[in-house]
Amino acid sequence: MCVKRILGADKGQVRMFEAVIAAIIIFSVFSASIFLMYPSRTWVLHEKEDLDRLGYNILHSLIETDAIEYVLTESGGNAAYKLKMLIEEIISPSIYYNLTIFKCEDNGGVVTLRSNFNVSNISPDEFGRLPEKSSTMAIYTSRSGENGGETYYIILVLAKGR
Amino acid sequence: MGMRRILRNNGGQIILALAIVMSIVILSVAFSIYQMNAGRQLLKYEPVKEIVLAATSDFDRTLTVALRDASLEFDETYDENNASIKGESVLQKWMRSAVMAFSHLGAKMEIMEREFKFNWNTPIGFSLTYAYFSMDLETYGFRGWIGRSDKVVVLRIFNGTVRKTGDNSVTLVFNIVDNGKPVPNLIPGLLNVYVWNRNQSKWDSAEIVNMKYLGGGNYSLTFSSIVNEYELGLKLRAVTPKDGIIVSACYFRGINLNEVDWGTLYLSVGEEDPNQEYLLPYSLVSFKTRQATWVISKQKHTYREIASPPIPEYIYIDMRETESVNISIYVQPSPVPKPGKPAIFNVTLFFYNPSSGGNESIIFEPVQFKITGQGTYTERVSDHYRGIIPNGSIVYMRVTVISDHTLHIILNDNERLYSWVELGKAYYSQ
């Protein structure tokens, strides 16, 4: 019935009808293209990657600026506090971290890890509940002081606040 | 019937057809981009570069600690082997720690080559180490990384700057660099100065009076010590402020220690008097003067002689321990000898001991050299003087031309020595 009406219509109406269909096709194609070009979960992938990069950057900064060396050779109880301050100067307040330094103890060829100290800006329970975490690690050999020659294993876990 | 009407309306159909073609093109492009994006997401970020570079950087620090411990051991024992063992143990401990730390990444690491080297007996002293290590991270499929780390600390005493500035003081300029970078924060507490006590054959500590940083790792140093103007042996021992690596350098002028080998004497120009030619041990030769050449011919200067300074009283040369005496002479004959008619000259070696007041003692009968062109000629003499050249003796060498050629005998230039005599082994006569 409808087709008959269209077929029976004059040329102008047919042209209008064809133009509308062409517009719909073009619009649909553009919508599909945009959907294909911007996958919806990209931000999730990028977030973990960004946290990894940030983690390695923080470790690199702490090591190469001798901040870790200073903290490890610091006598008294201020070492953890100073390390906390240093990290919080680098990262944004919306990022939570947990940094643990282990001392590598060589017992006749077998190396064991002993936790030296730990700093964080969130309680362990709350940190555990955060969904997306990134874990980065590095080793550090101390050069000076009574710890000179000791090797440390540093783990930095980062998470983005919800 | 209806179709025909549609076909007749071909203007609108073209719009539709174009829309469809455009759709196909746009969808193809979009799908390609989608596929590229999906592919990129499959290439998950893997922090291989960060881990490997962080391990390499830490290996640099470990090598520093290893050199520190090795230099400490060498400072105590003067045994390079012991020092290497000490340094090696630091590297091995690090290796075990690193493998354990990265075990979850399937890390395989190995120290492939390493060396610890110390040269503390010359004006340019150094403590050096280098090592290669390989690293694989199986989890990331990363294999074959080979890193090299070096650590070298160099302490240099500038020979020309050592001056006696008063009755009891000496000044000099020295330079200290750590991996090529100047060390700007050396303080007197990290530097020891020792002066050789000839009478007791030991190093005496000297007091630092003044030390000033001149920039570029250069320091001017004044220390107090009663020293002879012509005989000075001094040793600097520095500990780098940041890493605690020990390095040492020695300077000798006019005195002779174990390190000065009087068994081989070079025809050369001396440091004390650049216009005078001497038979000198290598460590007393000056390379910054001039080329020394003798011209001998039958017309002028049939022979030339060269003498050593008095051999120090506590050193003697025992040729019985050697199988031969070797004489090496660099000669340029003129004109170039014709085939079958070599240029000929003789070398005679003898010594004279002023304290005994005796005659000259011939070490061996004249040795004849037959040369056919320019170059270094070496003659071995087995039937030589079997005895001792007593301490205090002066060793002479005489070169006499026999043929009608003019001979240019080159002693040294400012880079190398060309002519020498290997007498044997020199010992202390304690």
Reconstruct the topology from this structure.
The complex is a heterodimer of chains A (162) and B (430).
Chain A: H1 2-8, H2 11-37, H3 42-64, H4 67-73, H5 79-90, E1 95-107, E2 110-120, H6 124-129, E3 133-141, E4 151-160
Antiparallel strand pairs in A: 1-2, 1-4, 3-4
Chain B: H1 2-8, H2 10-42, H3 48-77, H4 80-101, E1 107-119, E2 124-137, E3 142-157, E4 163-164, E5 169-178, E6 181-182, E7 191-197, E8 202-215, E9 218-224, E10 232-239, E11 246-253, E12 264-269, E13 277-280, E14 292-296, E15 303-307, E16 315-318, E17 325-334, E18 343-352, E19 361-371, E20 375-381, E21 388-389, E22 394-401, E23 406-412, E24 420-422, E25 425-428
Antiparallel strand pairs in B: 1-2, 2-3, 3-5, 4-5, 5-6, 5-9, 7-8, 7-10, 8-9, 10-11, 12-13, 12-24, 14-23, 15-22, 16-21, 16-25, 17-20, 17-23, 17-24, 18-19, 18-22
Helix pairs in contact in B: 3-4
Segments of chain A where pLDDT lies below 50 for 5+ residues? none
The N- to C-terminal Cα distance of chain A equals: 57 Å
Briefly, what CATH class of the largest domain in chain B? Mainly Beta
Output the structural class of chain A.
Answer: alpha+beta
Low-confidence stretches of chain B: none
> Numbering strands along the chain, what is their spatial order in the largest sheet of chain A?
2-1-4-3
How does the major sheet of chain B shape up? Answer: 11 strands, antiparallel
Strand content of chain B: 35-45%
Could you please describe the fold and organization of this structure?
The complex is a heterodimer of chains A (162) and B (430). In chain A, a hairpin with a 2-residue loop joins strand 1 and strand 2 (110-120). With 162 residues, chain A is α+β, with helices and mostly antiparallel strands. The relative contact order of chain A is 0.15. Chain A has a four-stranded antiparallel sheet, with helices on one face. Helix content of chain A is 51%, strand content 27%. Chain A has two domains: 2-37; 42-160, Ribosomal protein S3 C-terminal domain (2-Layer Sandwich), CATH 3.30.1140. In chain A, helix 4 runs antiparallel to helix 5. Chain A contains six helices and four strands; from the N terminus they run H-H-H-H-H-E-E-H-E-E. Chain B is an alpha+beta fold. Chain B has three domains: 48-150; 157-253, Immunoglobulin-like; 264-428, Jelly Rolls (Sandwich), CATH 2.60.120. Chain B is 21% helix and 43% strand. Chain B is built from four helices and 25 strands. Chain B has helices at residues 2-8, 10-42, 48-77, 80-101, and strands spanning 107-119, 124-137, 142-157, 163-164, 169-178, 181-182, 191-197, 202-215, 218-224, 232-239, 246-253, 264-269, 277-280, 292-296, 303-307, 315-318, 325-334, 343-352, 361-371, 375-381, 388-389, 394-401, 406-412, 420-422, 425-428. In chain B, a hairpin with a 4-residue loop joins strand 7 (191-197) and strand 8. The model of chain B has no long low-confidence stretch (mean pLDDT 82). Classes of the chains: A alpha+beta (162), B alpha+beta (430). The interface between A and B is large, with 49 and 50 residues.
